[in-house]
Amino acid sequence: MKRFLILNAIVVGALVSGCHQKPKLDQMELPFATVRVQSVERKTRAATEDVVGTVRPKLSAVIEAKVSGRIEQMLVVPGQTVKAGELLIRLDDHEIQSRLDQSAAARQQAESDLKRFTTLLEQKILSQSEFDGAQSKFRMAAAAESEAKTTLGYTRISASFDGVITHKLADVGDLALPGKPLLQMENPATLRFEADVPEAIISNLKLGDKLTVRVAAVGEMKGVVAELSPAADPNSRTSLVKLDLPGAAGLRSGQFGRVAVPVGEITAIYIPAAAVIQRGQMEMVFVVAQGHAHLRLVKTGRPVGNEVELVSGLNSGEPIVTEGVSALADGQPVKILP
């Protein structure tokens, strides 16, 4: 504190001596400036710790094939918006179509035999066991045809929800296999923020909490805790927390951000950030005393919204200039707006 007072005296002395070196008006001759004043007070705020995280889609999918086949058509590209049910990929279906034709023919033959056997059974020319065998054969043929139809449908790969294509992992001519990713898509309308919160502060969170999330390209927004991992990662000693984000212009998946996690409360002096004057490495404010504005060297801490924490330089109750700072000179008389 002693060093701070000495430095303050040096700065003020330099400003005063500068005034003596040049033929300027006396402080009493300076015109009145109209300013707005605020008395500084200590405030209690929630203390927070910033935790880094990433914006991710709430709804995303990896598109894969259910059957093997060469890709005949790739109908989308990354960045393209698609609707639920829209065709994305068409696979070569000649082999599956042949199996369907065969099963359809077998089903028709079994159906014809069943009709004939039904007539013979009614005429008591055929035994019940022979009829049951024909009926079973028809059912098996019908099931085989149905399976072939379903398999043929798998050669047409469609979007399962409205979204946008983000990655293309295969192209025309590639062999699609079950489990092999072909496309990735997501719904950009529903995004969330995911962060690994240290186990020391995870107990301060619960489902439904609203936390401040800051993304450089967007700014501040409120995220709601939607998922809270009940178990910590044994390697990182963190728990995954997911927050639902509101829609905001410029917000995209993959962006880096920070979430303010509450860790307790702190009492300090907070002043409007606009009241602080930056001159090189020094920070100063105008303090009003006896109708004049006087420069005071201060030291600031963390910003909180439009305010900044004051570490030293002012006491509670002192009036500072919050509007009209840029036009003021040290020692200038002021008129205070109500």
What would your notes on this structure say?
- By secondary structure, the chain is of the alpha+beta class.
- The protein folds into 3 domains: 2-47 and 266-336, conserved putative lor/sdh protein from methanococcus maripaludis s2 fold, CATH 2.40.420; 49-59 and 187-264, Beta Barrel (Elongation Factor Tu (Ef-tu), domain 3); 61-186, OB fold (Dihydrolipoamide Acetyltransferase, E2P), CATH 2.40.50.
- It is built from 3 helices and 21 strands.
- It has helices spanning 2-21, 94-122, 128-153, and strands spanning 33-39, 42-57, 60-64, 69-74, 81-82, 87-91, 156-158, 163-168, 175-176, 181-186, 191-198, 210-215, 219-228, 238-244, 256-272, 277-279, 282-289, 292-304, 307-312, 319-323, 332-336.
- The strands form 3 sheets. The protein has a 6-stranded antiparallel barrel.
- A hairpin with a 2-residue loop joins strand 17 and strand 18.
- The protein starts with a helix and ends with a strand.
- The relative contact order is 0.21.
Give the C-level CATH assignment of the largest domain: Mainly Beta
Give me the side-by-side strand order of the main sheet.
2-11-14-13-12-15
Number of DSSP E strands:
21
Q: What would you call the structural class?
A: alpha+beta
Morphology: rod-shaped
Main sheet characteristics: 6 strands, antiparallel, barrel
CATH superfamily of the largest domain: RNA polymerase II/Efflux pump adaptor protein, barrel-sandwich hybrid domain
CATH topology of the largest domain: OB fold (Dihydrolipoamide Acetyltransferase, E2P)
